[in-house]
Specification:
By secondary structure, the protein is α/β, with parallel strands linked by helices. It is about 35% helix and about 15% strand. It contains eleven helices and twelve strands. Helix 2 (about 65-80) links the parallel strand 4 and strand 5. Helix 8 crosses helix 9 (about 265-275) and helix 8 (about 245-260) runs antiparallel to helix 11. The radius of gyration is 19 Å and the shape is globular.
Length: about 325
């Protein structure tokens, strides 16, 4: 039985687990067999929210994009779809479907549906802003997909607050299906959205679904001064956080909370994030079932007031000198 406390996603009727499983690694650093094992373990532990994009993993030599969706589709066909599983995917960066023009959004959605092997996409994101396409054209195309039953809800990812507000205003003015959530980068080391996007989300009833919640792996605790090199495509950028005066201070705070709570540093960092204002679910990916184990406590563990305060103070951007 699933005893994970699901959360309502903004003003939609979707209810999702606090940990959203990122599918960017499927068909890339996790082959199909490993991907199936990760999806099996995630859903068996009560997770019900899987995130991907049509462009994953077009950046890999020999890949065309759509690899992640294809793996998820094969897993669904093999296992049968769990009744409460929420699937999110995105459009704008696939080599064959770039941008957010109306015809492109429609064509990309059709291709994603075919790869996933589903009749409806639960949550369909505009992956990156497209300033060359009139925003109203994009908003209408997404809304029409909802009317047609091919999409349940619309989301935005990597859009600035002004563009998000403009999209919402267009939908209100024209009676369109408005976005219900935003997916921004956000973590203990990157808290810039707290000054603009978080207030907007609270004002307009948007759910926040942060990605890079582990700061490219830095908040797992694997990257420390003098530590051995980590085998990861993101290792260089993760290690760069040590140049931030807050880096080592945040690691010390994570260590302290992890020791007291008995859960891994990664789960501590994500649990802090999962309970920030307007945050409903946090994205994280795993290349193996073993990596997933360190993430799963997020679905059940809530940090107390003292640990949250310790982490919040340690990561405060205004606190620029190490203590």
């Amino acid at each position: 039985m699933n005893d994970v406390q699901l959360r309502r996603l903004g003003r939609s009727d979707l209810r999702v687990s606090p940990l959203c499983l990122g599918g960017n690694v499927f068909g890339w650093t996790a082959d199909e067999r490993a991907s199936f094992q990760i999806l099996d373990a995630y859903t068996a532990a009560g997770g019900n929210f899987v995130d991907t994009a049509d462009s994953y993993s077009a950046w890999v030599e020999g890949h065309r994009g759509g690899e992640s969706e294809t793996v998820i589709g094969r897993w669904l066909a093999s296992r049968g779809r769990p009744s409460d599983l929420v699937i999110a995917t995105k459009v704008s960066r696939h080599p064959d479907f770039p941008g957010l023009s109306g015809p492109n959004v429609k064509a990309a959605a059709k291709a994603s549906l075919e790869r996933l092997g589903v009749g409806t996409i639960d949550l369909y994101y505009a992956h990156f802003d497209d300033t060359e396409t009139p925003l109203a054209e994009s908003a209408r195309a997404f809304s029409e997909l909802v009317d047609e039953g091919r999409v349940r809800y619309v989301g935005l990812s990597n859009h600035g607050p002004d563009r998000i507000r403009e999209w919402l205003d267009v939908c209100e003015r024209e009676g369109l299906h408005a976005p219900v959530c935003v997916q921004p980068p956000y973590n203990l080391m990157e808290r810039g959205i707290e000054s603009d996007l978080v207030p907007l989300a609270r004002e307009r009833g948007l759910a926040l679904l942060p990605y890079f919640g582990l700061a490219r792996g830095f908040l797992t605790g694997k990257y420390r001064p003098g530590a051995a090199e980590v085998d990861s495509p993101r290792a260089g950028r993760a290690r760069a956080y040590l140049d931030d005066p807050r880096g080592e201070r945040v690691l010390r705070a994570l260590d302290a909370v992890a020791e007291r709570s008995g859960i891994p540093q990664a789960a501590v960092a994500l649990s802090w994030l999962a309970d920030r204002p307007s945050v409903v679910s946090v994205l994280a990916s795993a290349r193996s079932p073993q990596q997933l184990v360190d993430l799963l406590p997020v679905n059940r563990v809530r940090l107390g007031e003292e640990p949250v305060s310790l982490l919040t103070e340690a990561s405060d951007p205004e606190h620029s000198t190490a203590s």
